[in-house]
Design brief:
The protein is of the alpha+beta class. It is built from two helices and six strands. Strands 1, 2, 3, 4, 5 and 6 form a six-stranded mixed sheet that branches. The longest helix has 19 residues. The chain is globular, with a radius of gyration of 14 Å.
Length: 126
């Protein structure tokens, strides 16, 4: 099955050099999301909890734009700049995936786009 680029409200790439979502073989791959407000130019204020919540809200908007939701996520990769904030990030993450959470890797990095503390990419299944 060839890949398709879903289109519609919230999926416009604009000036970005990548697609926000790609679908192939029944899986939807979402581009990495940081904890910013739509249309803003950087992460929300309020610390790692606020940033994680905004990040996962962004994931939810993209999932719903392609007709899916959080329970459809099968794999997540989280990138975090400070592992001392891991527990706080994970506490918020559990609110979005309270049961049967997706598999996940968490990777420590030195820097993320726009000064974000945390970023996530997910794969969902139809």
């Amino acid at each position: 099955m060839p890949k398709t680029v879903p289109t519609g409200p919230g999926l416009e790439a604009g000036a970005l050099p990548f697609s926000k979502a790609i679908e192939a073989n029944g899986f939807v791959f979402l581009a990495g999301q940081i904890g910013d407000e739509p249309g803003s130019n950087g992460p929300v204020s309020g610390g790692i909890e606020a940033e994680t919540r905004a990040m996962l809200d962004n994931v939810g908007r993209l999932l719903r734009a392609v007709g899916l939701d959080y329970p459809d996520v099968v794999k997540a990769t989280v990138y975090i700049t400070n592992f001392e904030e891991f527990y706080a990030m994970n506490t918020v993450y559990r609110e979005y995936f309270p049961s049967e959470p997706p598999t996940r890797a968490t990777v420590g990095v030195t820097q993320l786009a726009l000064g974000a503390r945390v970023e996530i990419e997910v794969i969902a299944a139809r």
